[in-house]
Amino acid sequence: MRESVITTETIANPKSRYGSANASTRHFITQRVTGAINILFLALLLFIVVRLAGQDRADVVGLLGRWWIGVPFAALIANVAIHMRNGMRDTLEDYLAGSMYRLAMLLNTLFCLAVALLGAGAVLKIVFWG
């Protein structure tokens, strides 16, 4: 099948349909919800940064090792990775198309997944195994 070409006339015509309405709505809601959650987690992040300013590794492990600080911090890292993926998706959609867009989105997704797994995993390791 031939991919349809989206032109400025297609976009300007209010009766034309292109893209997935469900995927676009899900993307919009996910971006807003993760952004709001990031704002809520900002107090935790500020507490951790201020509390650990000038401290050594033992103090970092001691603070992050408390489950009521470490587990929400790991959730913050995962949430930021989801928000980062969606934000980069917007940029990639603006500047890339076709197979280059699909490759860039794959790399973006893999990078954000690695950040989430490694970051949250490291914090959870400190919480549960010291």
UniProtKB/TrEMBL annotation:
**Taxonomy of the source species:** Bacteria, Pseudomonadati, Pseudomonadota, Alphaproteobacteria, Hyphomicrobiales
UniProt cross-references to NCBIfam families, sorted A to Z: succ_dehyd_anc
Q: Which cofactor does it need?
A: heme
Chief site of localization:
membrane
SUPFAM superfamilies from the UniProt entry: Fumarate reductase respiratory complex transmembrane subunits (SSF81343)
Assembly and partners are described as: Part of an enzyme complex containing four subunits: a flavoprotein, an iron-sulfur protein, plus two membrane-anchoring proteins, SdhC and SdhD.
Q: What protein is this chain from?
A: Succinate dehydrogenase hydrophobic membrane anchor subunit
Species of the source: Devosia subaequoris
| Localization terms from the record | Membrane
